[in-house]
Amino acid sequence: MDLKLSLAPFRGITLKAYRTAFAGNFEGFDLFYAPFVSGTGRNRIKPSTISDLLNENESSIPCVPQYLGNDPGEMLLLAEVLHDNGYNELNWNLGCPFGRIANKKRGCGLLQWPDEIDRILENYFRSPKLKLSVKTRLGFRHGDEIAGAVQVFNRYPLKNIIIHPRTGAQRYSGKADLLTYHHYMNMSAHPVIYNGDIYSIAQYWKFKELLPGQNEWMLGRGALIDPFLAIRIRGGNPGPEEKREKLWKFHNQLWEYALENIPDQRTRTGWMKAIWHYLSGSFSESREVFLGIKTAGSDASYLEAVRKTFESGFASESQIAEHFLRLSA
Predict the structure, then answer these.
(1) 9 in Cβ contact with 38 (< 8 Å)
(2) How confident is the prediction for the chain on average, in pLDDT?
């Protein structure tokens, strides 16, 4: 099986503008997953609710929308509307780890209730408008909660299952449990995509060795830190000038979008700062880079901080790893 790489969804960051700019500057990905939509209603979906998913053909890389919820009627209606807008797949988020969501039996919180998952899937597959995939974790509080869910998944024609090998309670701390992941990878009747802690070439090959037969991978925070990660996994080796040119163009496309679509200066720079929370790790002095950008109080001071950033050097593999681990602590 050929290597397949997808970009994980990040709420508030990987909007359509981000996906479009990313696809235009960085190679290596086969697929993007869009941040989840929820609370769309079961009678009518307002276009504003899914505005980030409309006209997605602006990006050269296919995109899969994601649903977060536990309402079968809402899920079916969303699939119908997305089908009418040219999509062919919907991803169901059973992995969101945040307590305010999981405690309402959404995200990974629903893994404790396999009968509910069964009910929702049975309803969906009575008249599916789109192929359905699932993004999940090992559990909400315990790493064996996925067992019942996988048994349910095996009874339905899912396209694939994406598993992040942590519990919701862990969020992103501690080590990814590859042993348990491998167990459920073998237990699944569907293709399983690995997601979690791939932030360097060395880390990728380490996981590749520990997971024989694994060919589909979802990159998350590692790719937001180093947008060249996917092409480097595929054997590419962009030099410093190419990296500087593409990152500069990427940033300027995002900033142009922000200027045109986010009128409030604080909100505008806030979105860019959220992106730099990760992207600063591409530069050798990542802490200083992010501090300068984070403390910028105006468009002008923000742009000056960015200008200084691009005068600095790029991070080594070990420095990227340090940045990733700081974000995970």
Answers:
(1) no
(2) 94
> Whole-angstrom Cα distance, residue 299 to residue 54?
29
CA distance 235 to 28: 10
Evaluate whether 166 touches 137 at the Cβ level (below 8 Å): yes
Per-residue tokens: 35: 């941040």
CA 212, CA 67: separation in Å to the nearest integer?
31
Q: What confidence tier does 44 reach under pLDDT thresholds 50, 70, 90?
A: confident
Beta strands of the chain (E only): which ranges?
A: 4-7, 31-37, 63-67, 89-94, 131-139, 161-167, 192-195, 216-219
- Would you tell me how many other CB atoms lie within 10 Å of the CB of residue 48? 8
Burial of 121 from C-beta contacts in 10 A (0-12 / 13-18 / 19+): buried
The helix (H) or strand (E) run that includes residue 246 is helix 240-261
Answer for the pair 312, 285: CB distance below 8 angstroms, yes or no.
Answer: yes
User: What are the pLDDT digits (tens) for 259-299?
Assistant: 999 999 999 999 999 999 999 999 999 999 999 999 999 99
Distance CA(324)–CA(327), nearest Å, equals 5
**Residue whose tokens read 């501090």:** 291
247, HSE (Cβ side, Cα atoms, 13 Å)? 29
Q: Which candidate, 127, 114, 124, 186, places its Cα nearest to that of 153? A: 114
